[in-house]
Design brief:
- The structure holds two protein chains of two kinds.
- By secondary structure, chain A is of the alpha+beta class.
- Chain A has helices at 2-33, 58-66, 127-133, 182-188, 210-220, 229-239, 241-272, 274-282, 287-324, 341-368, 371-380, and strands spanning 39-43, 71-84, 94-101, 109-114, 122-125, 140-148, 153-168, 177-181, 199-204, 224-228.
- Chain A folds into two domains: 2-29 and 239-380, no CATH class; 72-197.
- Chain A has a six-stranded mixed β-barrel.
- The two termini of chain A are 28 Å apart.
- Chain B has one domain (11-234): P-loop containing nucleotide triphosphate hydrolases (Rossmann fold).
- In chain B, helix 3 (111-122) packs across helix 4 and helix 4 crosses helix 5 (155-167).
- The termini of chain B are far apart.
- The chains are: A alpha+beta, B alpha/beta.
Amino acid sequence: MLAVLGVAVSAAMLLDMVMLATGMRQSLRSLLLSRGFQLRVAPKGTLPFDTEATLDSTSALAARLRANPDVVSVSPVLGGHVHVRPRSGDGAALTSVALGVESTVQGDYELLNGGDATADDALVVNDAFLAASHRRIGDSLTVAVDYDPQLRAYAGTRLMRLTGRARFLYLAAGQRAVAMPLATLQSLGGAARADRSSLVMVRAREGADVERTRLWIERTFPRSAAISTETAMRQVDERLSYFRQLAFILGSVSLIVGFLLVTTLVTVSVNERLGEIAVLRAIGVARHRVVTQIVLEGVAIMTVATPLGLALGLMTARWLNGILAAFPGLPEAIDFFLFQPSAAWASLGMLAVSGVLAGVYPSWRGASQPIATTLRQEAIG
Amino acid sequence: MNALTIAPGAPVLEAQSLRREYRMGDERVVAVQDVSLSIAAGEYAAIVGPSGCGKSTLLNLLGVIDRPTTGSVRIAGRQVESLSDAEATRFRLLHVGFVFQRFYLMPALSALENVELPMSEAGMARAERRARASELLGYVGLGKRERHRPSRLSGGEQQRVAVARALANRPSLLLADEPTGELDARTGTEMIALLERLSADGTTIVVVTHDEKLARATRRVVHMLDGRVERDEPVR
């Protein structure tokens, strides 16, 4: 039982490593495509929301993009921070990520209840914000932007109405967020933010050549960079190569440990039954049948241990995901360990092959013992 | 199953000038030398002698589980000393039945399944082998214990299952190496009675034994000493 548990732990680790090797990538890809936007336009040399840089003349840019027959919808987004004055007027202001969006085409949040940010003074917030600000839907609150410590004043303030509660897709766990109409956030920032956006998301027509559209955007707007999901994934791949290498190494180690464990178990079992094996051969059981029988024992250990290992692996992955979800700056929706049937099948396949190979050496050894010598030694023993 | 039929009295086994040498480190050990032996169909013979005299080695040579260094063995008209490993395995399966001192039943299989094993290996249909296994277990007096696993059988019962297993493919020759060696006096006597009954029913049997009672129950005793046949004489 302990041996099966040992193999199960090894199987669990293997599954986790296979999930880790591909999970984050798949999870990020799913997230990027979840709202149907295949292209993201950002200031040249930056990644979306990577810096404070913004695109100017957003209206013109959006209009030009919408005019392209391969483009279905365009969603400009301005990112920033807002400060919400406390309810009582004293104490520190609550700072939150703010997104200026066009609510009808936005791809940044899912409205959970209440109304969307359609009116100029409408504000949609997430649970973290609600919890920290002690506000409810329907409350009015004053939001401010760009605090100047020398002047001890904000660049802009506005009384707004909290209309809805939403889940923001790209934010980290516990990060407070609010969304308001794009024009509102732009106007709060004054001239510095007039007609500016941090990012423009573009949804291409179904069947359109996304890469061609991407190249057209970069040609048409030379000061911007158009990033398709595929190019983003390539960049992610480069950044995540460490994870994949780590997963590969640890996965290989767990596979080798499992292999050695099964080999050891089968070897011990064969050594204890050398007399039995010699008698099988003596009474006429063919060598290949003996080998097959012993190999099957290795497979049986793997077969019993694998479901246990898969269950253990999934539980471990869930636990680790819970810990890693708090990784700074990573969207909450990203899973490091994403269960995919292909990952489970890959693990099962590797374990099955490993189980067969683990039985080969002991079975070959057991079935190759000279019958007469083995029986003589057994008789003496 | 067994294609070779031997006329009563005709030799089932003929060994000529057998010699078996082993290498133990730098030393060469001669376990069997210059042994010639002929066993007729239906004969019941014992090979006796002190420990280390080469009895079991000779039995292994006669049973095609070991190869002579020189000499030849002919069983049921077939020369067997030069068979390949696979051919020898198949030959043993179909023509030689073995009973060992330590029974060596498969612990995970029932008595019935243990007896079925050689027939299954020989390719016999399931229903046929089950019927024969059941019949054999009835013959050795274990008809009511055929579903029991070896761990639930006494030593004597296990040895009787081993005898039934050895008879499964109707072998030309039954070889038994110390079949009473692990049994107490009472079950040893039962085993001797069973072997006598088998002999009376026409089975050709060669036993290697230290057990004088068993040796006396046979019809012929081959005495060995230092790897050679010292004396070969009928009993009574």
